Amino acid sequence: MTTRPRCECFYYFSIAVDDLVFFLRDYHRSPLTNDDIMSKLNTKLPLVVIALMFIAGCASTKKVAEEPHVLAGEWAYSLDTPQGVYTGVMKFMEEESGLAGMIAADENPEQFAPLENLMFDSEMSKLTFQFDGGEYGTMKVNTTLTEGKLTGMMNVGAFGVDVSLVASRKAEE
Prior knowledge:
Elements: H1 8-29, H2 34-59, E1 73-81, E2 84-95, E3 98-105, E4 113-114, E5 116-121, E6 126-132, E7 138-146, E8 149-156, E9 161-169
Antiparallel strand pairs: 1-2, 1-9, 2-3, 3-4, 5-6, 6-7, 7-8, 8-9
């Protein structure tokens, strides 16, 4: 007796294989004509083929590894301000809830601020987010991804000033 496995397709495959095995055993015990063999194969073989197709369908339900997000990784950024150029790093990573990220200035490389309201429009290649800039208030960033670079503006909340931002993917070390 065949017990039912979790996947129905394996159950039906096992029934078809059992029938084919019994047929082959009978063939060895008593000679069958070619017509008998063809008749049995014509009824059993399609069942085996259909069962194999179902098994292939069950096997392919597992999630296939996807390409990493176009922004995933580390990006070196620079801000062109009236007080000079400031640099730092942004990190983007994929999480179950979607794209996430953090940002830090080179002045405090270990002090990362999480990116909030992080949105990437893949059709328009637009990236927007904001983060808590401490004494500078909420920093709002609007950029466009073009030819592997992020370019756009950062609004410095405490001063209401927009400064130019350019970021490039950091080379893997």
